[in-house]
Amino acid sequence: MTETTADSLIPYDEIVQDALRSVVRRVLEKIDADGGLPGAHHFYIAFRTRFPGVDIPRHLMERYPDEMTIVIQHRYWDLAIDDDGFQIGLSFNQVPAKLRVPYGAITGFVDPAVNFALQFAPKEGELVTEPAPEPEPPKPIEPGSNVVTLDRFRKK
Fold first, then answer.
1. Which of 43, 58, 60, 137 has its CA at a distance of 20 to 30 angstroms from the CA of residue 11?
2. What is the mean pLDDT of each run of 10 residues along the chain (156 residues)?
3. DSSP string, 47-109
């Protein structure tokens, strides 16, 4: 008898990851219903910025092309939670922004006030990939542009 594990036809890992992501949803629903975060609680939520359904301002996408972490603490607004994800208003360098984050995009959730953390396996094959920009052709070298004069370094 061999001791190899049979491949499961039931995606247990994916089911467990989705169940753990529902913890994030329930926590957000609780703070929304309670009117804010209790005590010293605050959250760090990491997510993939190119996941389908993620909607963040262009300047944030440029700064965080793969993943970003947001902090939900004192100043946030317009928190809206639904079956697929959440929407929230946050400030980045005192510039207000509205973000939409599907639960499937979340890769981490931390509440440092109580040392609670969840880490999620990224959902592969669901990332939006943009074609790489065409590289710019090299600029032609002008005659004499690669000549360096040493006159200013010579002793007089």
1. 43
2. 70 90 94 91 95 94 94 92 95 91 95 93 59 46 45 52
3. EETTSTT-B--HHHHHH-SSEEEEEESSS-EEEEE-SSEEEEEEEETTEEEEEEEEGGGEEEE
